Amino acid sequence: MDTIDTDRFPEWGPFAEAVQQRSPETGTWCEAWTVRDIVVHQTGNAEELARVLEGHLAGEPVQTRRFEEREQPYRAMNDADLWTAFNDRMVHLGRIAAAADELPADTDVAWTGRTMKVPWFAEHMREELVLHSWDITGDNAPAQDRLAQPWMTDHSVYAVGVPLLRRGRDILELRGDERMAARIRVDGDDDVVVTADAESTAIALAPPDGPATIETDAATRVLLLWGRRPADPGRIRSAAGPLELGRLRTLLSGY
Question: What is an example of a Pfam family matching this protein (predicted)?
Answer without folding.
Answer: MDMPI_N
